[in-house]
C-alpha cells in the first residue's frame, strides 16, 4: 500500500481534480453519449475538447491582452513619473492621519532620489513574484494537460470505475455505502457549481465596475476575473491594477471607486456566495460549509475547497448514523436492565419475608 501511494503521490492532485471534474459533468456526458449512440470513446473525446476549449481559450485571451497592454503600462509609468507624481487631495480628509499622510507622500514623491529608492525596493520583490507567477503558470498548464488526460479515461471507463467504487464502499461502510457515495457525489457537484457560479458572479460585477469607471478592455478584464477567481485573491490583481491605472491617468476619484468596488463587491462575493451555493446541495449547515472550505484550503491547498466540505459532510453523516444506531439500541437495553433489576429486587424481598416468618424461624 505504501509503495502504491508513493507511486501515485506526484499525480494525486491531478487525479482528484479530474475525478471532481468527471463527477460534476457526468450528467452532461451521459446526455452527450446518448446522442452519440452510446459511443463512450467518442463522447469522452468530445467532452475533453470542450473542457480544453473552455479553459485554454480564456487564458490565451488574457495572455494576449497582457502582452499588448504591458508595454503601454510601462510607458504610462515613465510618463507619469516624468510629469510629476501627484497625491490625491482626498487623502487630507481622512480623520486623524490624513494631513500627515498627505505631507509624507508629497515629500516622498517630490524627492526623486527617495522615490527612486522606494521604487527599486518595490521592484525587487515584484520581479521575484513575477518569476514565481510565470513558473506557477507553467506548472498549472502541465497540471491542466495531465488532468485532461486522466479525465478522458474517467469518462470512457466511468461506469466500471463507479461499480468498483461501490464495491469498495460497501466493503468499508456496509449498509451506509449508498449514503456515503450519495454524499460524495452531491457535495462534489455542489462545490463545483459554487466555484463556477462564484467565478461567473465575480466576472459580471467586475465587468460592471470596469464599465462604470471607464476602464478600457472591460470584457477581457472580466474574462480574466473569471479565470483568476479560482485562485485565492486572484481578482485583486486585475481590479487593483485597474485602480492604479485610473490613478495614473489623473482620475483619483475613479481609482478610489474602483478600489472600493473591488473590496466591497467583487472580492466579497466569494466570501458568502460560495458557501451558500455549496450548502444548497449538501447536508451541512452554512457555518460548517464555511469552516470546511477554509480548513480544506489551509490543509490541502486549492483542492481543499472540494475536499474540506466533502470530508466534513461524510463525518457528519457517519456521526449521525452512529448516534441514531446507538439511540435505537438504548431503549431495549434499558428495558432489559430495568426488568432484571425489578426481578432481583422482588426476589430479595421474598427471601426477606420468608426468613422473617415463624415457619422460616423453625426451619
General description of the model:
The structure is a single chain. It is globular and about 95 Å long. Helix 3 (40-83) crosses helix 8 (218-228) and helix 10 (252-280) packs across helix 11 (286-300). The N and C termini lie far apart (74 Å). It contains 13 helices and no strands. With 363 residues, it is an all-alpha fold. It has helices at residues 2-8, 12-35, 40-83, 98-110, 112-156, 158-173, 177-213, 218-228, 234-248, 252-280, 286-300, 304-356, 358-362. It has a domain at 184-350.
What is the mean pLDDT?
75
Taken from the alpha-carbon principal axes, the silhouette is globular
How much of the polypeptide forms β-strand, as a percent range? under 5%
Category by helix and strand content: mainly alpha
**Helix segment count?**
13
How far apart lie the N and C ends?
Answer: 74 Å
Total strand segments: 0
Cα-atom Rg, whole angstroms? 32 Å
Q: How much helicity do the residues have?
A: over 70%
* Unreliable sequence segments: 329-335
Largest sheet: none
SSE order = HHHHHHHHHHHHH
Amino acid at each position: 500500500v505504501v509503495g502504491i501511494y508513493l507511486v501515485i503521490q506526484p499525480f494525486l492532485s491531478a487525479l482528484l481534480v479530474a475525478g471532481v471534474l468527471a463527477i460534476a459533468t457526468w450528467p452532461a456526458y451521459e446526455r452527450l453519449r446518448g446522442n452519440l449512440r452510446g459511443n463512450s470513446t467518442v463522447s469522452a473525446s468530445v467532452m475533453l475538447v470542450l473542457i480544453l476549449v473552455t479553459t485554454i481559450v480564456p487564458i490565451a485571451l488574457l495572455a494576449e491582452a497582457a502582452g499588448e497592454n504591458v508595454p503601454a503600462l510601462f510607458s504610462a509609468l515613465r510618463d507619469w513619473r516624468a510629469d510629476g507624481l501627484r497625491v490625491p487631495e482626498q487623502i487630507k480628509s481622512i480623520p486623524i492621519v490624513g494631513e500627515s499622510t498627505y505631507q509624507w507622500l508629497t515629500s516622498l514623491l517630490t524627492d526623486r532620489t527617495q522615490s527612486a529608492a522606494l521604487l527599486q525596493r518595490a521592484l525587487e520583490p515584484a520581479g521575484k513574484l513575477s518569476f514565481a507567477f510565470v513558473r506557477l503558470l507553467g506548472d498549472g498548464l502541465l497540471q491542466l494537460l495531465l488532468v485532461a488526460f486522466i479525465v478522458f479515461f474517467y469518462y470512457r471507463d466511468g461506469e466500471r470505475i463507479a461499480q468498483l467504487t461501490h464495491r469498495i464502499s460497501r466493503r468499508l461502510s456496509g449498509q451506509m455505502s449508498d449514503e456515503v457515495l450519495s454524499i460524495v457525489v452531491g457535495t462534489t457537484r455542489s462545490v463545483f457549481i459554487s466555484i463556477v457560479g462564484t467565478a461567473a458572479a465575480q466576472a459580471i460585477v467586475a465587468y460592471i465596475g470596469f464599465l462604470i469607471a471607464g476602464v478600457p478592455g472591460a470584457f477581457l478584464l472580466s474574462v480574466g476575473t473569471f479565470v483568476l477567481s479560482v485562485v485565492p485573491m486572484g481578482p485583486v490583481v486585475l481590479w487593483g491594477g485597474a485602480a492604479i491605472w485610473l490613478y495614473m491617468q489623473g482620475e483619483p476619484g475613479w481609482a478610489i471607486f474602483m478600489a472600493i468596488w473591488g473590496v466591497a463587491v467583487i472580492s466579497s462575493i466569494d466570501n458568502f456566495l460560495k458557501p451558500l451555493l455549496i450548502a444548497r446541495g449538501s447536508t451541512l449547515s452554512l457555518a460548517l460549509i464555511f469552516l470546511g472550505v477554509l480548513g480544506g484550503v489551509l490543509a490541502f491547498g486549492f483542492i481543499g475547497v472540494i475536499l474540506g466540505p466533502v470530508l466534513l459532510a461524510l463525518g457528519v453523516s457517519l456521526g449521525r448514523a452512529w448516534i441514531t444506531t446507538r439511540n435505537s439500541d438504548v431503549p431495549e437495553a434499558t428495558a432489559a436492565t430495568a426488568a432484571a433489576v425489578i426481578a432481583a429486587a422482588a426476589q430479595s424481598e421474598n427471601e426477606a419475608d420468608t426468613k422473617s416468618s415463624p415457619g422460616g424461624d423453625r426451619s
